[in-house]
Amino acid sequence: MAVNLLKHDGWNPYMAGALSGLAAIFSVWITGKYFGASTTFSKSAGMLEKIFSPERVAGLAYFQKEIPQIDWQWMFVFGIFLGSLIAATTDGSFHGQAVPDMWYQRFGPHPVKRGLAAFGGGIVAILGARLVGGCPSGHGLSGSMQLAVSSFIVLICFFLGGVLMARLLYGRGETS
User: Fold this and answer.
1) CA pair distance 89, 100, nearest whole angstrom
2) What is the pLDDT of residues 130-149, one digit of tens each?
3) CA–CA separation, 77 vs 57, rounded Å?
């Protein structure tokens, strides 16, 4: 019986959790930094803005503290994208889809409508992440590893917000 290592039903959640924990430990050990992603998006916006108005970016207090440049965190986020792309293509689950099935069933086949909703949701999510000083990966992975009470509170709020928005957008779902 041949074993196809590239075709499987997904990662074992215990193995994925253990590897995530090891990656977090090595991140702190090697870089002195904890996991996080939301700052990458504001730094990316700063890098784009530097193309058009470098003096404005240089004058903003936020960008004096968080220098808009490609750094370890930017590479971490790029690695998440690249790793998920590799995983999806190697196990055969990758496919392009402008409008997900659930969205199509609820709101129709309009990719522009879906894109605007996703963009608006992204803006709300990044504003929320900036308000609470971190994103779900920062608070959920790094903050909870440090047993930070504020991170547990924020993480609970992220989950409750996600459940609430899913209910508002998609309803209760189908019951058998």
Assistant:
1) 18
2) 787 777 777 888 888 888 89
3) 22
Alpha-carbon span 40 to 94, nearest angstrom: 25
* Phi-psi map region of 128: left, alpha, beta (phi>0 left; psi -120 to 50 alpha): alpha
Indicate if the alpha-carbon torsion angle 138, 10, 173, 109 is positive or negative: positive
What's the pTM value of the predicted model, to 2 decimals?
0.72
Amino acid found at 47? M
CA angle 65, 60, 28 (to 5 degrees): 20
Alpha carbons 4 and 147: distance in angstroms, whole number: 40
- The single-letter DSSP state of residue 133 is T
Give residue-wise pLDDT tens across range 7-32.
Answer: 556 677 888 889 888 988 888 898 88
CB neighbourhood size of 138 (10 A):
22
